[in-house]
Amino acid sequence: MIMYKKRLDGRKFDELRPITAKVGVIKNADGSAYFKIGNTIAYAAVYGPRDLYPKFLQNPEKGILRCNYNMMPFSGSGERVRPGPSRRSKEISYVTEAALSPVVNLEDFPNTVVDVFIELSQTDAGSRCAGICAASMALADAGIQMKDLVAAISVGIVDGQILLDLDYQEEAYDKGDVADVPIAVIPSTGQLSLLQMDGQISKKDLMKALEMGKNAVNQIIEAQRKALKARLEVREK
After folding, report:
1. DSSP reduced 3-state for 162
2. What is the pTM of this model?
3. Which residues pair with 68 in a beta bridge?
4. CATH code linked to domain 19-236
5. Residues 43-82: pLDDT tens digits?
6. Count of C-beta atoms within a 10 Å radius of residue 94
7. Is 155 in contact with 129 (CB distance < 8 Å)?
């Protein structure tokens, strides 16, 4: 029996929160982007390719992508975020690298590193997905050769109801079971470059949720491309 019949913020079950995407927001970076979804705000700055030190970390065949995810101390919904690296931030940094690596071509830059710094100034769930969306745009803005952009969104289930883009209230819902499933999609192939899960969900519901997420990715990609196009038009003036 489905008990969660109406979303707390009034959205439809398959509706994204409002999206804002901008590119070229950090002056001294080689590439940068801003991605906001609902009340979650992510900034990404890209530096490189540049020589990687110490040298034993270098790959003579191609460059390395290195991501660093960080939530600012007063950014979180709920408890205050402690400053500095945490187990969670390290884990999200790693999965962000994994989500973006399939589309980034660094074969022409051996022994180098491309650093991506992601800062969350405000969060209301979906922070890793917002970070991936911002980082994807920032890499493109930096002129890094890419096969495609990457778009990420969360899907899941709250008390029996399949949902798109859970917010903090839904993630923290305590009147029924909750499952949160962040995904990242490569639009040109439909492949997933990230699939994580927090909570329990049946295979049948998971497949429905993934389909919902893949359909929504088109809206995110459209916002990303529009931002990059606007940036290109400014550069050409």
Report:
1. strand
2. 0.92
3. 117
4. 3.30.230.70
5. 999 999 999 999 999 999 999 999 999 988 766 555 555 6
6. 12
7. no
